[in-house]
Every structure is written in C-alpha cells, then in structure tokens.
Amino acid sequence: MDRQQTEKDDEASGQGRPTLKTLAFMTGLGVTTVSRALKDAPEIGAETRRRVQLVAKQIGYRPNRAGVRLRTGKTNVISLVLNTEREIMSFVSDIIYGVSEVIADTPYHLIVTPYSRSQDPLDPIRYLVETGSADGVIISRTQPNDPRARYMLERGIPFATHGRTDMGLIHPYHDFDNYAFAAEAVRHLAGIGRRRLALLAPPVELTYHSHTLNGFTDALSDVGASEIPFNTVSIDHSIEQIRMRTAQLMRREARPDGFVSSAAAATLAIVAGIEDAGLKLGRDVDVVSKQSSDLLHLFRRELLVVNENFRLAGAELARSVLGWIGGAAPGSLQSLSMPTEVLAYRRD
Predict the structure, then answer these.
(1) pTM metric for this prediction
(2) Which strand (E) or helix (H) includes residue 290?
C-alpha cells in the first residue's frame, strides 16, 4: 500500500518532472527503497541513501507536496509574513536570503505572505492557520503583547518572531540588541564632544521602541548628556515628514548636535533636513545610524554607522522554526545578536 500510494502521489506531480520511478530506474533500486532513502530511513544503508540523494539532487527531483501533505499532514512550507510597505532598505531580500540558506538542504520551501497597513496584521496569520498552508511561520514588527504570537501559541503552530514580546509566554525569537545599540551610539557621540542628542525611534507600538529608548536614556544619564526631544515622528513616518521635522528642529536655537537613528532610510531624511537648515554633517552635527547594508557611507561619508545583520536574522529564525517543528523546546530557540562598534568612514 505504501508503494502504491507513493507511486500515485508521484504520478500526480505532473508530466516532465523527475519522479520516484525516474530515480528508481537511474539507481537500479525499487521505488520503495528510493522513497525511504530520500527520507533517511535507518533501515536503508548509508551508501545507498547517499547515492539516491545525490542522484535526486543532480536531476532536480522534488517530492510532490500535495502527496506529501496527504500522507503526512505536512506542507513542507515555512511562511515569512511581512508588511512589505514598512520593510525597506534591503530588509526583505536579506532576511529571505538568510531563511533560504538554512532551508536549502531540507524538504522545506519558503513562501512570503505579504500584508499592507490597511489590514489587521492577524489576518494573514489566521489564513495560514485555518487553511493549514504552512508548517511554520516567521513574523516581524513584534509588539509587546502580540496577538499573532498568542494566537499561534494557543493553536500549537510552530513560529518564530523577529523581535521579542513581553507577554510572559515562551516562544522562539531572534532579536537585535537595540538597547545596546542606542547606548553605544550615545556613548560614541558623547566621546566626540556631542552633548545635546536626539533620538529617532521606532514606533511606540513595537517592542523594540522601549528597548531603544531605554538604552538611549540610560546612556544619556551615564555620560551627562541631555536629550533634545524628537518624538513627533518615528522611523515609520514618510521620508518627507522626517525631513521636514528635522529641518524645523535644526533651525531652533536649542538644536541637537547629535542624532541616533534606528533605520537607514530615516537617516537619509535626517541628513536632508540637516542640510535644508543650512548645517553641515560632521561639523555642526553627527548622526549614528543602524544600517543593514553598506549604503550610508556612499550617501554621506561623514555618517557614523552600526551594522545590523538581517541575513543572520533570517537564518536564525529559520533554524528556530525548524527546531520547533523537529521537537525542540521553544525556550531553547531564542537568540540575540549584538551591535557592531560604531563605524566611522572618515572624520575631518
């Protein structure tokens, strides 16, 4: 019955693509043996498993996902749920690359499930869960009390969050230490003589807003610098809004001489606003910014940058989801990456 069902599933995969029968013919083995070798069944010898898997890779064999789901209840799909209107400046491509690297040698496939600002962020999660479209889910833009994480925990869906929650519930995550980033940025600015600092923070509803703000304010106290409030905009505002607000701030008598920016795209707007006010970056004011690719120094050499590795984030998130699917304890699938030192391309 197992062999008959396997053959039927394979034949349903469509004409022209390699099937288990193709592999059986090329290796001189039975269809059932080939099927078990592809699954790393222990009763199949190591050399046979290696030979079958090598031939499968060479001819581009892929199991029929519809058949796999019928037999096992699995989709072999990981879904990355993204608000693509918000995730810019290479985040999307880098995190997809990181996930794809990890799942490349597994049976799993990646699908990206986008949603827009007009949607409830829970809508795509409900769809994935109710339709059984994925075995595991990765989400970003995490909130302290995130309804998506709670929903999936209640339904036993393996998932990982890019960012932490604050719900008192254990789940896999990968996060960047934004507290350490903001604190180090303040210390660096103070070290080059900047004393009046402004923070362009993440939106208040996201968990890493408080991490960033706490790092910023704690370090201000440590170095004896003062804050110039800049809380009428966040990194989620448009480039033009940030530029306009920055220019207004920089035309005041009590203006900042240093900025900490939580996103590279927002930094472009801050610099434009500084220059709109007739001031010079690196002379009148310095900016420390996060970036996910080496772009900011191409824009302005005077910028101070801290690198955040989204490719690493994608890889860690994929490992976390696969680990949970494989039976690992969710609490063992949590990771935190530290910021690099502040990098200066050139100081006059």
Answers:
(1) 0.80
(2) strand 286-291
The residues spanned by each domain of the chain are 2-72, 77-176+311-337, 178-308
Span 2-48, pLDDT tens digits = 444 444 444 444 446 788 888 888 888 888 888 888 877 888 888 99
Query: pLDDT tens across 151-193, in order?
Result: 999 999 999 999 999 999 999 999 999 999 999 999 999 999 9
User: CA 317 to CA 331: how far, in whole Å?
Assistant: 13
**Amino acid of residue 197:** L
* Three-state DSSP string of 65-96: HHHHHHHHCCCCEEEEEEECCCCCCCHHHHHH
* Run of H or E including 322: helix 310-325
CATH number of 77-176+311-337: 3.40.50.2300, 3.30.2130.10, 3.40.50.11270, 1.20.120.450? 3.40.50.2300
Domain 2-72 has CATH 1.10.260.40: yes
Angle at 76 between CA 43 and CA 165, to 5 degrees: 120
